[in-house]
Amino acid sequence: MRWQDREGSNNIEDARGSSGGGGMGGGKPIGIIGLIILLIGAYNGVDLSGLVGGANQLSNAQQQTRQQPQYSQQEQQLYKLSSVVLRETEKVWGAYFQKMGKTYQEPVLQIYSGATRTGCGTGQASAGPFYCPADNKLYIDLSFYNTMKNQLGAEGDAAFAYVIAHEVGHHVQTMLGTLGKVHNLQQQVGKTESNALSVKLELQADCYAGVWGYYAQKDGLFEDGDIEEAYVAAEAVGDDTLQQRAQGYTVPHTYTHGTSAERKKWLQRGLQTGDINQCNTFGAQ
Length: 285
Prior knowledge:
Blueprint: E1 12-14, H1 32-38, H2 49-52, H3 54-62, H4 73-99, E2 108-111, E3 115-118, E4 121-124, E5 130-132, E6 137-140, H5 144-152, H6 157-176, H7 178-186, H8 191-218, H9 226-236, H10 239-247, H11 260-273
Parallel strand pairs: 1-2, 2-6
Antiparallel strand pairs: 3-4, 5-6
Helix pairs in contact: 1-10, 4-6, 6-8, 6-9, 7-8, 8-11, 9-11
């Protein structure tokens, strides 16, 4: 990706020095089982504390030494990349909302290490990247890059950009009212139906990530091979792929994000059309 000389976002918080961080190697590794459970994220405003360790772990982490951390060159690069990608999404979605006669409220991206407090409860690095609608923030521990590379077989700048753009997609859903409506509906149905709605939300966020990629590509952000990197990343986090790797079989009614094929399909649709109206996963069979 051609991102090195581009403008970064002003809506980025560096909370690594106050969130029990240890740099790229300081977080606890995320196992495949953990990915299945925790990549669900906080898009529906759930309290993360029960999933990722709770306030006590956060308190303990924050009691660690608070000397100014020294970040590796890789982490410094990932921080800048995250800032640039966020800025690129701000430009694309700001213009898109303006065309609809609406104002795009830019989300904040918090870079943390170890654990952090969020409007949806306590977040921890093992949760992977997530979005919290209660505070309109995206959260990411940069060590997730190594999880993608070493455990999921998805690496590269474009793969990491896809992850950020997907979480921004959940923010777009919040701004459009989709996420709130679906969350309310999930409270009225059974677990299987709730999971199916979750899948549709996630696939739509993939499509929105693709819509962003359509315009980013026109703006010269992507180089040869970048789109393929994004596709590999989308496929790597498909429910069927994660479950097969973790337990040797799949349980479709427990899917919350969609299959690898579905995730690639909807990301591809957004990338090829650049049209948010083509992202109606709720109306698709």
